Amino acid sequence: MTTTSPPLLRPRSRPFGRALCAMVTPFTDEGLLDLDGARRLAERLVSEGCDGLVLSGTTGESPTLTDTERSALVRAVAEAVGDRAAVVAGIGTADTRHSVQLALEAEKAGADGLLAVTPYYSRPPQDAVEAHFRAIADACGLPLALYDIPGRTGTRIEPETMLRLAEHPRIVAVKDCAYDLLGTQKVLAGTELAYYTGCDEYVLALYAIGGAGYISTVANVIPRHFRSIIDAFDGGRTDEAARLQQLAIPLTELMMTSGLPGTVTTKALLGALGLPAGPVRAPLRPAGRGTTDGLLTAYEHLTAAR
């Protein structure tokens, strides 16, 4: 008698693909937007396994970008990758009217979807958070992902609020940086929302319980490695998926928990590898030589171990 294994739990939708990179925004040495560099970086990321690119997010230094730069970046990257990858535009601000305007401009520029962070600084209550996201979703025809990162915004999108927002036909996904796996599972169990982890150490963990994939900062430098984690899991090679996730721990720790923002460490390592990045914009400051050397060593160890 032969038996078959039960199917692996998979998400009900992946509106922007599985393997997404939170792409840095390349600048020239003079600090200007480097559209050629953005095209080249986007092309590399897609050729190395990314099926979605998130622009103008935290890693993309969104607070320093002008509205004109945001639109130009979306247009350039969308033209570079065509239909090979989804282009998701970060349009979150602390001002609902401004976020709505950015959503409409991203749609015109060719974005496939939107990412909106919880309004920050003003710390609105949950009914106001809900109204903010509904206003964006009502104003634009693109699918919307909610960005839950209370460590930066000061305000959580509570699970009960997520459950209500999931009823909106254009609110389709979440970038989850809340570090609340129980709350995440409650929303997964009660909605059709596609959950993407924004925490690189949770790529396999969230995927294994029904997440749609990831939106990764570290994938700027090792896109193929992170794609291989979810490919191994989908292929039933769970031990290999776990090995690959663990193999990325040293580099992930240096890039994301070293006391420097991930944008700083990512641009330092990309620059050391000769890839498009350029400087960070103030108030961020570049990584020192010692930090860059340590990142490069961890990167080399990971690539040698694969």
Automatic annotation (TrEMBL):
Gene3D superfamilies: Aldolase class I. InterPro entries: Aldolase_TIM, DapA, DapA-like, Schiff_base-form_aldolases_AS, Schiff_base-form_aldolases_CS. Pfam families: DHDPS (PF00701). It is found in: Cytoplasm. The active site is at Y147, K175. Keywords: Amino-acid biosynthesis, Cytoplasm, Diaminopimelate biosynthesis, Lyase, Lysine biosynthesis, Schiff base. Pathway: Amino-acid biosynthesis; L-lysine biosynthesis via DAP pathway; (S)-tetrahydrodipicolinate from L-aspartate: step 3/4. It comes from the Bacteria. Its EC number is 4.3.3.7. One of its GO terms (molecular function) is 4-hydroxy-tetrahydrodipicolinate synthase activity. Pyruvate binds at T59, I215. It catalyses: L-aspartate 4-semialdehyde + pyruvate = (2S,4S)-4-hydroxy-2,3,4,5-tetrahydrodipicolinate + H2O + H(+). The record marks T58, Y121 as: Part of a proton relay during catalysis. It is an enzyme of class 4 (lyase). SMART domains: DHDPS. Its main location: cytoplasm. One of its GO terms (cellular component) is cytosol. One of its GO terms (biological process) is lysine biosynthetic process via diaminopimelate. Homotetramer; dimer of dimers. Catalyzes the condensation of (S)-aspartate-beta-semialdehyde [(S)-ASA] and pyruvate to 4-hydroxy-tetrahydrodipicolinate (HTPA). Belongs to the DapA family. PANTHER family: 4-HYDROXY-2-OXOGLUTARATE ALDOLASE, MITOCHONDRIAL, DIHYDRODIPICOLINATE SYNTHASE. NCBIfam families: dapA. This is 4-hydroxy-tetrahydrodipicolinate synthase.
